[in-house]
Design goal:
There is one protein chain. This protein is α/β, with parallel strands linked by helices. It has one domain: 3-Layer(aba) Sandwich (Rossmann fold). 34% of the residues lie in helices and 21% in strands. The longest helix is centred in the middle third of the chain and has 17 residues. The chain is globular. The protein starts with a strand and ends with a helix. The structure holds guanosine-5'-triphosphate (GTP) and magnesium ion (MG). The site of magnesium ion has 5 residues, from α1.
């Protein structure tokens, strides 16, 4: 699938958020989980900056996709190597985004397939549920596990988070799972 993607803008504070003119899907998850890499895999071009150093994405970044919706790359939460100060400064920004945007169609929550759902993810999914924000759960870096172990983790996360559907296992490296994720993303946008 040919995707037309362009960088729109970055914001370090709510005053800099762009106009609410297209539905938005927010990509969220721990620092280093692979948010920016997955955006690049989805659009088939290196549009979002990635790094081995956790905490690479410090701003909220908007990408316009097919002139139809925005993928929004959020800074990662809860990574030990990022100083507490930095993390605490991001939280209000992320929360402000998730609670104020009239255009927020949903959230794509990324979880490292090797870590599974931890307290932060359980809390976050409960919070989204309460707010009625639709969430697609994605397990990243699937290439790091053999097939059988992958299946096991998919089931574990499904049960831990009380999901109706299986989380989608993807690899930005091999492209595994990118097509099913596209279908889920489009379905989420179509619902708006
Ligand atoms: P922050 O912006 O710091 O929150 O990180 P991020 O969630 O955007 O992660 P990013 O995409 O920058 O990737 C972090 C590291 O994980 C990089 O070294 C990537 O190459 C690696 N990575 C991302 N996706 C995959 C994947 O599917 N497989 C493997 N093996 N490595 C991956
Ligand atoms: Mg990033």
């Amino acid at each position: 699938m040919k995707v037309k993607a362009r960088f729109v803008t970055s914001a370090a504070k709510p005053e800099d958020f762009p106009p609410e003119d297209l539905p938005e899907l927010a990509v969220v998850g721990r620092s280093n989980v692979g948010k920016s890499s997955l955006i690049n895999a989805l659009v088939g071009q290196p549009i979002a900056r990635t790094s081995r150093t956790p905490g690479r994405t410090r701003l909220i970044n908007w990408f316009e996709i097919n002139q139809r919706f925005h993928l929004v790359d959020l800074p990662g939460y809860g990574y030990a190597e990022v100083s507490r100060e930095l993390r605490d400064s991001w939280r209000p920004l992320i929360e402000s985004f998730l609670t104020t945007r009239a255009t927020l169609a949903g959230v794509v929550l990324l979880i490292d397939i090797r870590r599974g759902a931890e307290d932060e993810e359980l809390d976050f999914v409960a919070w989204l549920d309460q707010r009625g924000t639709p969430a697609t759960i994605v397990l990243t870096k699937a290439d790091k596990l053999a097939k059988a172990k992958r299946m096991l983790e998919i089931t574990k996360v499904k049960h831990a988070l009380g999901l109706r559907e299986d989380p989608i296992a993807v690899s930005a490296q091999t492209g595994d799972g990118v097509d099913p994720l596209w279908r889920a993303v489009l379905a989420q946008i179509e619902r708006t």
